[in-house]
């Protein structure tokens, strides 16, 4: 392989590497939700997070949001969770994902909005709404 060919291959792979980053973050987020791991989920929170969960709605610090999510997971322990749709958001360097969270017979539509901050994607908004 010539240097020129290698350079072209590298340039073709850059967009794939850039796009893979949010998917890796989403995999980690999905795993934390699936396990009911509030601490693991909060590792992806921005310093302030907008939450909409059960009867709680507002903007909270990362620590407050972690406690609210922990309480939610305690009240509604996960039976299953998966993202069913994700993609780039209208804003630059932002993405979203929509999932289904099941706790026993209760089902919640889950929405996550992420924005690039520095070199990582952070959760700015997350909601769990009864279906």
How much beta, percentage-wise? 35-45%
* Strand count: 6
Stretches with pLDDT under 50, minimum 5 residues: 6-22
CATH architecture level-2 label: Roll
Average pLDDT works out at 86
Q: Specify the overall morphology.
A: globular
Question: What fold name stands as the CATH topology?
Answer: Nuclear Transport Factor 2, Chain: A
Largest sheet: 6 strands, mixed
User: What is the string of SSEs from the N terminus onward?
Assistant: HHEEHEEEE
Main CATH class = Alpha Beta
Structural class: alpha+beta
> Spatial order of the strands in the main sheet?
2-1-6-5-4-3
Percent helix range: 25-40%
Distance between the termini: 55 Å
Any overview of this molecule?
Helix content is 40%, strand content 44%. It has helices spanning 3-35, 38-42, 62-75; strands at 45-53, 56-61, 80-88, 94-103, 106-117, 120-130. Strands 2-1-6-5-4-3 form a six-stranded mixed β-sheet, covered by helices on one side. The chain is α+β, with helices and mostly antiparallel strands and 131 residues long. The chain is built from three helices and six strands; from the N terminus they run H-H-E-E-H-E-E-E-E. The chain has a single domain (3-130), classed as Nuclear Transport Factor 2, Chain: A (Roll), CATH 3.10.450.50.
